[in-house]
Amino acid sequence: MLVLGRKVGEKLVIDGNITVEVVKIQGNRISLGIVAPSNIKILRSELTEPQVNAQIVEVAVEDGLLVAC
């Protein structure tokens, strides 16, 4: 695992076409903005595990950033 420190507004680029930006830090929570091609599936890790009651996640684009609600 690669561990990086980033400040608000700083980004990292994965494979030249996926950008992750630290949008907000509040207490012990951070908000990340992810820009990726539409064919890339992005899921929170808890959604990849089998669950009895599946959750529906709404995804929206705000200011050019993909936001999961």
Brief digest:
The chain has 69 residues and is an all-beta fold.
Features:
single chain, 69 residues, mainly beta, two-stranded antiparallel ribbon, 5 strands
Topology:
Elements: E1 11-14, E2 18-26, E3 29-35, E4 59-62, E5 65-68
Antiparallel strand pairs: 1-2, 2-3, 4-5
Provide an overview of this structure:
With about 70 residues, the chain is mainly β. It has one domain. It has no helices and five strands. A three-stranded antiparallel β-sheet has the order 1-2-3, with no helix packed on it. It starts with 10 loop residues before the first strand and ends with a strand. The mean pLDDT is about 80.
Round the mean pLDDT to the nearest integer and report it: 82
What is the succession of H and E elements? EEEEE
Give the tally of β-strands: 5
Query: What is the end-to-end distance?
Result: 26 Å
